[in-house]
User: What shape does this take?
Amino acid sequence: MELAGAKILLVDDEEDIREFLEHVLTKAGAKVITGKNGQEAIDLATKHKPNLIILDKMMPVMDGVKACSEIKKIDELRKTKIVMLSAISDVESQIEGLDLGADDYLVKPIKSNLLISKIKSQLRQMKSLELAKPAIIEYKHIKIDRIKFIVHLQDKEIALPKKEFELLYLLMSQPDQVFRREEILETVWGKDIYIGDRTIDVHIRKIREKIGDDYFKTIKDKETQVHISNHFNSPTCIISYYNIKDKNCTDARTISKKLYNKIADHYFEVKKKIF
Assistant: This one.
């Protein structure tokens, strides 16, 4: 069975959805515990210590966002994977859930085979992280404890949300190595999750605000900068260079929107000059 041995806590206030997902997960071999609201999620997670929690976002008593945040504050549950479910599909809601500690965000209705695939991916990632990474690493004045999810800057304890913690851990695990955006996205957010480049920038900025600017350096590709300054003469050049497939699209607003997810803010002024 695909999820044999996995202990999963399923929390959703809609009985029909809860029963359907429980059936799907049980059939795949998982041991399933169910709850109806965010407070029950916290209580059941503390009692049963599941490998993974499926958490609906909108629920009575306490919503999934608040429950996710509270669960991640419990030491023994910090490593527990959380998959958030919601009928709300906008990017801001997804980022909110991920920033508060969710490992994935799935939009209802979701196909059962996709749900199983996502859960398997999260469980594999959790297992590989436990096997491959040391519990404690230190760099300069920073000490990071992966077991307790604690960061110390000199003698001061710094609280970081889960994704910021994992991103800092990745960067500290190999000091002086330059990480490409693709590597960071795959390692911290996983292969199966689509997150825009801006998400990394936001998380790096938040970490810098908490521990200072002395530990990070953003390396800009010199060839790319030269290419921008020399060849950004027309919409066609922009489309070609950034591999935006629709070359028939020459509308300035459309190109600008597509470019927004392709290049960082420090290149944005170049677009304004073109249009």
Q: What stands out?
A: DSSP finds twelve helices and nine strands in the chain. The beta strands are 7-11, 31-35, 52-56, 81-86, 104-107, 136-139, 142-145, 150-153, 156-158. Residues 8 and 32 are 5 Å apart (CA to CA). The chain has three domains: 7-131, 133-211, 222-274.
